[in-house]
Write a structure and sequence with these properties.
14 helices, globular, single chain
Length: about 280
């Protein structure tokens, strides 16, 4: 089926939260990015962390690592310059570090509505956060060093190759694609890309949208390493994934994630020349 951008816009504006509506307007209607950054700033707390249900599945107002991790993924996926939005963020992350380099969560994180898969207490891995902060030039040497020590113990070749869920490859991808001064980093990058492709080949169609988080453009490293048939299968799933209400479904068909999935699907189709 052909993609109906008007219906997609109607879906996002009817169902998205403010930052989703504004980022759609910026990406597909030419509206100012300053409004997007102003909306995202509202999720920032006085301690320079982020909370307030920015990540849809954890509603705690206090700053916690998952909210920041998701914010950084949004900025990267939409190629949005954060300006001064991330000022002070690296220091906040440092303040959450535990002795082993993992991240702590506020005691109240489970006192507010949250999805059952976060009953363990929230995100503790620092890899993706640090990788994105390095990309934006917002990481400091202390955080980079502590994350490196954590990664050396927890994100090994064996860990990478044992990852079977396509989405979860983001831990290795977000970190190793951004660091240069790391032992055997090229081998780790190659293993990460190889595992993404392995998972994508085995993934059901519902996960095909996620593949383009790792291959956002045809010239990205994962896309260049991928078989043309894999890319075409995943693109076909995305291109045919628009529902009657105008939106796309996420891989779990959770309503709160559909506006963001719709935005990502449109970005993919535009990057690969399937829509103007």
């Amino acid at each position: 089926m052909s993609v109906n951008l008007h219906n997609a816009r109607e879906f996002v504006y009817a169902n998205g939260v403010l930052w989703e509506r504004l980022i759609f307007g910026h990406l597909f209607e030419g509206r100012a990015v300053q409004s997007v950054l102003a909306a995202l700033l509202a999720y920032k707390n006085s301690d320079n962390g982020f909370g307030n249900a920015l990540e849809h599945d954890v509603r705690c107002p206090d700053s916690h690592p998952l909210a920041l991790e998701f914010l950084l993924r949004v900025l990267r996926r939409t190629d949005t310059d954060p300006g001064d939005l991330l000022d002070g963020t690296a220091h906040w992350v440092e303040m959450q570090r535990r002795e082993d380099g993992s991240l702590g969560n506020p005691a109240a994180v489970l006192d507010y509505p949250h999805a059952p898969w976060w009953n363990g207490g929230g995100q503790v891995a620092p890899d993706s956060i640090t990788g994105h902060l390095l990309h934006f030039g917002k990481c400091n040497s202390s955080l980079a060093a502590s994350t490196r020590r954590w990664v050396e113990k927890n994100l090994t070749l064996e860990t990478i190759r044992a990852t079977d869920w396509l989405f979860m490859n983001y831990h290795a991808y977000d970190y190793f694609m951004q660091v240069d001064d790391f032992p055997d980093v090229e081998r780790l990058r190659e293993a990460t890309i190889a595992n993404i492709l392995r998972c994508a080949e085995a993934a059901p169609p519902g996960q095909h949208t996620v593949f383009f988080d790792f291959a956002p453009t045809p010239h990205s490293p994962v896309a260049l390493a991928a078989d043309d048939g894999l890319i075409e299968r995943c693109l076909a799933t995305v291109a045919n994934g628009q529902q009657e209400d105008g939106g796309w479904r996420d891989e779990h068909n959770l309503p709160q994630w559909r506006p963001w999935t719709t935005i990502c699907s449109l970005l993919t189709l535009r990057a690969y020349g399937r829509i103007g």
